[in-house]
Amino acid sequence: MADNGTAFDIVVLGGGSGGYAAALRAAELGKTVALVEADKVGGTCLHRGCIPTKALLHAAELADNAREGAHFGVHTHLERIDMGGVNQYKDNVVGRLYKGLQGLIKSRKIEVVEGYGKLTGPNTVQVGDRTVTGEHIVLGTGSYARSLPGLDIGGRVITSDQALTLDWVPRSAIILGGGVIGSEFASVWRSFGADVTIIEALPHLVPNEDEAVSKAFERAFRKRGIAFNLGVRFSGVTQDDNGVHVSLEDGKTFDADVLLVAVGRGPNTGGLGYEEQGITLDRGFVITDERLHTGVANIYAVGDIVPGLQLAHRGFQQGIFVAEQIAGLNPPLIEESGIPRVTYSDPEVGSVGVTERRAKELYGDDGVEVLEYNLGGNGKSQILATQGFIKLVRKKDGPVVGVHMIGARVGELIGEGQLIVNWEAYPEDVAQLVHAHPTQNEALGEAFLALAGKPLHAHN
Ligand SMILES: Cc1cc2nc3c(=O)[nH]c(=O)nc-3n(C[C@H](O)[C@H](O)[C@H](O)COP(=O)(O)OP(=O)(O)OC[C@H]3O[C@@H](n4cnc5c(N)ncnc54)[C@H](O)[C@@H]3O)c2cc1C
What we know:
It is a single chain. This protein has 460 residues and is of the alpha/beta class. The protein has three domains: 8-143 and 266-336, FAD/NAD(P)-binding domain (3-Layer(bba) Sandwich), CATH 3.50.50.60; 157-263, FAD/NAD(P)-binding domain (3-Layer(bba) Sandwich); 347-451, 2-Layer Sandwich (Enolase-like, domain 1), CATH 3.30.390. It has 13 helices and 24 strands. The termini are far apart.
């Protein structure tokens, strides 16, 4: 066993999306790998993030379908939400994927070192009384749900971690933070019948999206009966047997069964020996160069501890990148703005590349062309009874630099969007490619036909 003196080629600290992707790719490239994990391989995304939330969102969609069947001539009604059953379905999905991942790790002969690791030298990670030595080290210790100063998590004040294990549906919920995680829980709980109020300090829900999308998202949430207060800060909360009592800086107060704190995620880097080894931290995040090297010895960092988009697929790509970098393959840099982003609520939001505002900052007000294609003209979207649009942002006479979408299932369309943006396609290139009819995907084709100056089913 490579241990206490015999070095692995790579020691990965943290078995989440970033860490396990680095381990899998490195093993594929013939490296010996130790993967140190304190909890369960798969990390936040598999156990407390992407997968369980999307299972809840799917159950929520079924609840809405049951309520709305009559609209399609299918007379159904929603009897009740059995959270025990919903959680069992969610946990089964997670369990199957977890088993698959463990099998994959084993089959690639990666040694999983169970326990809490600390970086103790340029080549060593200490796990209990075991010193695990590696020629290279990859840090991927991930993130935790942050709170605000003075806002303690406990009882009815919860984060996404507790929200995912609730065995009851709150009758009412206040959600602090209208970003991706807050909006997804708002969507689930509303579909399950709760009264939901979101509080967001910035002027919009999903505030990182193109403003047109954020506004459409707010209209859709309002229509669903989800309340929100924008541009106002939280000031305090108390809780008792009856619920939580939340106050805002503008003097408004709200009561509910629970308060979900969804104000972002902080890096898990404290007390792990990173600074002692000379690694630079900025507000807890690990600073690396563009090749994800920390500047110290052969130590790299991946995933949520590296400043930028905190997304699982970014972690996967960074993990693959670092493994290839270590193996001397000189992989191409990962372009942060080319990473697709999806909010899986009802409606969904999908985007890649830059917003209209950012494009104008980059290329000037006259250097940008924008086109919005309304899903009203798309057959499949009509069949699904969804509303929304696709917004394309193009550098004038140049490539497409942003694709922004809102509507049911648009998250599935972002795959094509990211190919277009990352391959720097011109609208004219995409307009000659054929999209199947009737698909929602076809709406992207139609949008590009319109942007190329030859609209088909568009009133633009
Ligand atoms: C509610 C929610 C929903 C989300 N939905 C999505 C989504 O739909 N799509 C998406 O792309 N992203 C989503 N994310 C974000 C995604 O989960 C993260 O971006 C991703 O998990 C980051 O991967 P990571 O490897 O950096 O860290 P993590 O997944 O956090 O993994 C870090 C791992 O390191 C381990 N660890 C930490 N410290 C130590 C130590 N000292 N010793 C040993 N092990 C240690 C932890 O136990 C953990 O397993 C969601 C997140 C949340 C919270």
